[in-house]
Amino acid sequence: RNFPEYYWNRVAFVTEPTVKLVHQAIVEKDGAGFKEKDGWNFLASSDEWVGPVQAQVGPDGAVWVADWYNFVIQHNTFVPNQAPTEFILPLTLADQKQGQGNALETNLRDLDRGRIYRVVYKKAKPSKSLSLSKNDVPGLIEALRSDNLFWRMTAQRLLVEKKDATALPGLYKLIADRNIDKIGLNGPAVNALWTLHGMGMLEGNQEAINAVTAALTHPAAGVRKAAVEVLPKNGHTVHLIQQSGILSDSDLNTRMAAVLVLAGLPSAKNIAGIAYDASMKEENGKDKWLAQAWLATAMNNKAEFLAYAKEKGDKLADGSFGRRIMDVVGKEADKPEDKDRKEPAPKPKAAAADAKTIKVTVVQDLMQFDKKLIAVKAGQKVVFEISNPDGMQHNFLIIKPGTLQKVGKAADEMLRDPKAAEKQYVPEVPEVLKATKLLNTGDVVTLEFTVPNTAGDYPFVCTFPGHWRGMNGIIRVTK
Ligand SMILES: [Cu+2]
Q1: Which residue among 153, 170, 232, 463 sits deepest, i.e. has the most Cβ atoms within 10 Å of its Cβ?
Q2: Which CATH class is domain 130-232?
Q3: What percent of the chain has pLDDT over 90?
Q4: Which residues are near ligand 1, the ion (C-beta closer than 5 Å)?
């Protein structure tokens, strides 16, 4: 707020160390989502050592930019958990070429120092520095009124850490303040809501619930959104959401937030009914993100949704939002594998007494297995226990030594095979020694493997499209 209004709640500072600038991303509401417009550079330098890595509004309201200040930005240190295997980089640090001029050796790097810039708006009003303490609850409540997010977040953190119930009346007061500023915001109420939530003061506290419920109709869309998001995740919340009218909120982003809260609640008949009725309103299907939120709500209540729809017996017009949702829900409910997914993950079969169990887990969001190198003895019996906690499907193949590129190429070619999914994305080549089925999220499977008598490096790999290059490792067989 120390900057011109152009910046308020609008510009994100994106640091780009390799191109030596801080970019201004203008983020504007676009239906339930946002769109970004190029706001050109906030800061750019022709000094080859400049490398901005972080830009934030500081306690004084200026933008503080952390500059790493290094000529060489890249590094060549092997990080086992990040990088692919030896097929892309040498397996150990010791194997790497670290000759003259590389990132570890160069003197075009300053390992000790960086720079911090403060970018100050010349016409800014003078800023007030606060001194906050966990033991000064009134001071923290007052700091929540600051127009600088830095102070509000700091006060919120200290209140959440302290968990002092004497803060509650002050928080209720901030939440009940229905004023909005020049651009329609009430930041203090948003922070007060999340403070209440962070302090754990909402469960079983009717006064707190009442304060939050009243905020569901606050004039600021951001406050309404925070209110619906902090409500306890239980069945009673459904009624509060329904009564407040937030499910037809004029701000589509806030409306979507409310729908997503519904989607995350335990399945219930009344939620299914709400989702069905919403699917009858075409305007809910016009925004692409809002439509997805309603679909998620229907999907989380499939059986109840279909039962309710049957009761209603509506005729759904082709191409209508209701028809589109019904088609997806109906199709998903018919899938036999969906029933399997609801049951708890099957316990892996007990391994044979003489077999060694080796657990391999997919690392979430990284497209990696948690192991890169597995050592086994020739001729040994091994049971691999593969778990997939990741959000996408993966499989696990053991292949002949030195054939990763060939099997990988065959995996790539499967993209043209209409039956690839049916084949669990396992290429039909003789190099594949063992393979699991495709593991869904939460699946655990076992794979029995008698280690060959020939010593060598036997790659293991996921051949789901696009995964094999990174998602692999080595089973090292020794005599
Ligand atoms: Cu994979």
Answers
A1: 463
A2: mainly alpha
A3: 76
A4: 394, 462, 464, 467, 471
Looking at the chain, the domain(s) classified CATH 2.60.40.420 span 356-478
Torsion of Cα atoms, 281 then 283 then 285 then 290, to 10°: -110
Q: How far apart are the first and last CA of the chain?
A: 69
- CA 358 to ligand 1 center in whole angstroms: 18
CA 406, distance to chain mean position in Å, is 34
Nearest alpha carbon to residue 449 among 369, 392, 386, 402? 386
Across 400-429, average pLDDT = 91
pLDDT digits (tens, 9 = 90+) for 76-104: 655 555 555 444 444 454 555 556 666 66
Tell me how far the alpha carbon of residue 391 lies from the centroid of ligand 1, in angstroms. 10
Q: Between the CA of residue 316 and those of 143, 324, 339, what are the distances in Å?
A: 53, 9, 27
The segment(s) of the chain belonging to CATH 1.25.10 are 130-232
Cα 438 to ligand 1 centroid, rounded to whole Å: 9
Residues 319-339: what's their mean pLDDT?
Answer: 80
CB 337 within 8 A of CB 443: no
φ/ψ of residue 79, rounded to 5: -110, 105
Q: How far is CA 212 from the centre of its chain?
A: 26
Cβ atoms within 10 Å, residue 317: 10
Say if residues 360 and 383 touch (Cβ distance below 8 Å): no
User: What burial class does residue 61 get, using C-beta atoms within 10 Å of its C-beta: 0-12 exposed, 13-18 middle, 19+ buried?
Assistant: buried
